[in-house]
Amino acid sequence: MHPQGTARLRTSDTEREEVAEILRAAMAEGRLDLTEGEERLATAYAAKFRDELAPLTADLPFGGRQALARTPAARAATRRSVSRHASLVLIIAGVLTGVWMLSNATFFWPAIPLTFLVIGLFKHARYGRWRPEYSFGHHHRH
């Protein structure tokens, strides 16, 4: 039992690895020197409970999420996601243009929804996420 009387939650390999990735990214940015980074990594891999992991990234910007978002793996995942989003916009553009051509309308009405779709794509490319409610690393936690 935890001193406050609440049960401590055990951590998982995935959570330990996530914290280790944040720590490695912070070391690469120069926020942690080699010695302190290695100490924190050792602590992260030895952690048995979630509350042991939190202090390891608490003094890093956004709990280390900012550094993690700039790792090569995160950037590659964002590129793949933006590429899928762009493909979807192109497919929708093709379908809407086809419907417009069949409708014999003189005004190119697909420009209106396509404008919003393209703005969403640019926001996705700029900010690395598509849905505003999505926040990196917090989609499975409560």
Automatic annotation (TrEMBL):
Segments crossing the lipid bilayer: 85-102, 108-125
Domain spans labelled DUF1707: 9-61
Keywords: Membrane, Transmembrane, Transmembrane helix
Entry annotated with the keyword Signal: no
Signal peptide coordinates: none
UniProt entry tagged with the keyword Transmembrane: yes
One Pfam family per UniProt: DUF1707
InterPro entries associated with the record: DUF1707_SHOCT-like
Coiled coil regions in record: none
Protein name: DUF1707 domain-containing protein
Natural source organism: Actinoplanes philippinensis
